[in-house]
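Our preliminary data section would be incomplete without showing what the modeling component actually yields. Below, a chain of 110 amino acids is followed by its predicted structure, encoded as tokens that our downstream tools consume directly.
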Amino acid sequence: GKTEEYNGSGFSEVNDMNTARGYMGSAGTQTAALAIGGLGPSTYANVESFDGISWSEISDLNTVRRGTGASGTTTAAVAFGGNPGSPPYFSGDTEVFIILALVHCILSML
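Predicted structure:
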């Protein structure tokens, strides 16, 4: 999981994600971001948070998915749809992430 930051004129390498993958959902900003699910040697459920310096795994999706849509911030995000990697190849699942102080609540809706 190579991570590069843009400073307005060029990119520089920063700390890598814990799990290298592509086709993930993402939400947030350059200094507060989420990487959600994705595809590597297999389809992942990992959710990692970036604080502008390093990545930390904060949770897992209830369903492994790649190509997941996502929107929001690191404290309130939604992940929706995606491909679980096996039939049926598209998911209508929606998962909501709400993080308050040190409490991480995951609500799953079908």
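DSSP finds no helices and ten strands in the chain. Residues 95 and 108 are 5 Å apart (CA to CA). Preliminary results of this kind motivate Aim 1 of the renewal.
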